[in-house]
Amino acid sequence: MSPRWEPNPHIRRGCTVVHTLHAHLVFTPTYRRGPFTDEILRRCEDVMRAVRADFETKLVDFNGETDHVHLLVHHPPKVSLSRLAGSLKGVCARRLPQEYPGHIRKYLWGNHFWSPSYPAASCGGTPLPIIKEYIENRKRPG
């Protein structure tokens, strides 16, 4: 009797591609001023979970501290991380000050909520040295 094949939940399929792309994003408010309370972090997560649906991405994990948030997103190859990040940050930057005006306004600098820069790192999968070795050891045709 053969073992039952279990699909890997991290592998996603499209018409022409099979992928498992994960990215770690970190967003900080302008000048790392600390506007986040536990309640505001929960609301920020809710807003970002709603936005990610428009991009067919999955928000695998979300957490933060008073002065930054971390996201782990599972995204298809057709999604530009810069576009996804811009949308996530943009919607939160509009919603949070509307919903928590007294608290958030005192942390804004020139009405800008997020710092324009952010780190993005690919993660998961095979370590780069192993992939490099695999590619180097492939036989060339002929």
UniProtKB/TrEMBL annotation:
SUPFAM superfamilies (alphabetical): Transposase IS200-like
Pfam families associated with the record: Y1_Tnp
InterPro entries reported for this sequence: Transposase_17, Transposase_17_sf
Gene3D superfamilies: Transposase IS200-like
Residue intervals of the Transposase IS200-like domain: 18-138
PANTHER family: TRANSPOSASE FOR INSERTION SEQUENCE ELEMENT IS200
Protein name: IS200/IS605 family transposase
Species annotation: Streptomyces aureus
